[in-house]
Write a structure and sequence with these properties.
Blueprint (H helix, E strand, L loop, with lengths): L2 H15 L3 H27 L10 H25 L7 H34 L8 H25 E8 L4 E8 L8 H57 L3 E5 L4 E6 L8 H7 L2 E5 L10 H38 L5 H4 L2 H11 L4 H4 L1 H8 L1 H8 L3
Antiparallel strand pairs: 1-2, 3-4, 4-5
Helix pairs in contact: 2-3, 3-4, 4-5, 4-6, 4-8, 6-8, 8-12, 12-13
Organism: Mytilus edulis
GO cellular component, one term: membrane
Subcellular location: Membrane
Length: 380
């Protein structure tokens, strides 16, 4: 390429790059928010919540995966938007994008395993659970699966030429060539369908399992309210029956009840026998107030389930538009360079909504998880 062609290409690239200025600002915000949130999660779980229950086992691991995905993906995406038609680094196109996709798919698979764990705890509490051994095995399996899912990017991603007849110059982008009919085109299309199938399958798993969890929680709340309402009349009757008696509370938590009523038809000796002291447990007459931890535990467990429902919903909302956009672009290599600046902002925002999946989780934790929120405040 001679000097004049290089100048023309740079001018064309600069013109296209202007379309992405707003989008680049969003990427920088995503980067700051994502890195800050996930780093806070890692610090809190390393310093404050290191010995927490198995329900939180995957949270710091997911935060680390999301952090690495954010650190690697956002700069790479900025690189591509700064050089929208002049990207020529084949190594970054293949290998860096491959690593980015490993952590991206690992994050998706972790949502699936976390939801499965919540389902077993809530809906099958007396059945098989994810023991420490199975949780560790799932980590290995998830990263193997994520690596296998992202491996084809190394094979098929390449620097694709984008001819511009009007300027008599050729630009370059990073992508898989699904437009040229050759021996690999069917495999590439099959791979794109496979990726879409994987994402859709995880979405369906999240929808089904979270629906079952929500139904179980609703049933528990309904039954608890029904039992609470049914015990109120019984407690009221007991209170009336013992209202004429005097209580003496002993140190062992029981009460001594002395009947005040006297049957005058009895002799004095019989009255003395009738007027006896009876050891009665207080729990027979009134339901003792449960400790704070016992009262809060069911609500805390429900909030934990709600938290992962919201995270699952965020994943679905961030990836669903991406699937539709992927199939819209599959037959048009020139899509990004022929749309207007406004359209570029809209479609790029949709294209990179998947980044939200890697940055939103810490803020969902902060909203629903009181223990995490309190621990995070102590870091300040």
């Amino acid at each position: 390429m001679n000097r004049s062609e290089e100048d023309i290409l740079n001018a064309w690239n600069l013109e296209e790059a202007y379309k992405y200025i707003v989008h680049d600002v969003f990427l920088i915000i995503y980067f700051i928010v994502g890195v800050f949130g996930n780093v806070v999660v890692l610090i809190v779980y390393q310093v404050k919540l290191k010995k927490e229950s198995d329900s939180r086992y995957f949270i710091p691991i997911l935060a680390l995966v999301d952090l690495l995905a954010t650190i690697l993906r956002v700069p790479f995406e900025l690189w591509r938007t700064i050089l929208p038609v002049n990207f020529r680094d084949i190594n970054a196109c293949r290998y860096l994008w491959f690593v980015v996709n490993i952590f991206t798919f690992a994050s998706i698979y972790f949502l699936g395993i976390i939801t499965l764990q919540r389902y077993l705890k809530v809906c099958r509490p007396f059945g098989s659970q994810l023991t420490l051994r199975w949780r560790r095995a799932s980590l290995v399996f998830i990263f193997i699966l994520a690596t296998g899912t992202g491996a084809p990017f190394v094979i098929w991603d390449e620097i694709l030429p984008i001819p511009n007849p009007a300027l008599n110059v050729t630009g370059y982008i990073c992508g898989a060539d699904v437009f040229e009919v050759n021996e690999n085109s069917d495999y590439i299309l099959g791979f794109i369908f496979f990726i879409s199938f994987v994402i859709t399958s995880v979405m369906l798993e999240l929808i089904i399992l979270n629906s079952l969890i929500a139904r179980k929680i609703y049933t528990i709340i309904r039954n608890t309210n029904a039992r609470r309402n049914s015990t109120k009349p019984a407690r009221s009757n007991v209170s009336k029956e013992i209202s004429g008696s005097t209580f003496y509370v002993t140190q062992d938590g029981t009460s001594i009840t002395e009947a005040n009523s006297t049957d005058f038809s009895l002799t004095n000796n019989e009255q003395e026998i009738r007027k006896e002291k009876v050891m009665v447990p207080l729990s027979n007459y009134s339901q003792p107030i449960k400790s704070t931890s016992e009262n809060q535990e069911p609500a805390s467990s429900r909030k934990f389930s709600y938290m992962f429902m919201v995270i699952s919903l965020a994943f679905i909302l961030s990836y669903l538009p991406q699937i539709f956009l992927l199939f819209s672009l599959i037959n048009d290599r020139y899509f990004w360079i022929k749309i207007s600046q406004t359209e570029t902002i809209v479609f790029k925002f949709i294209d990179h909504m998947t980044t939200v999946n890697n940055i939103v989780n810490p803020y969902v934790y902060g909203f629903f998880d009181q223990k995490f929120r309190a621990s995070a405040k102590t870091l300040c």
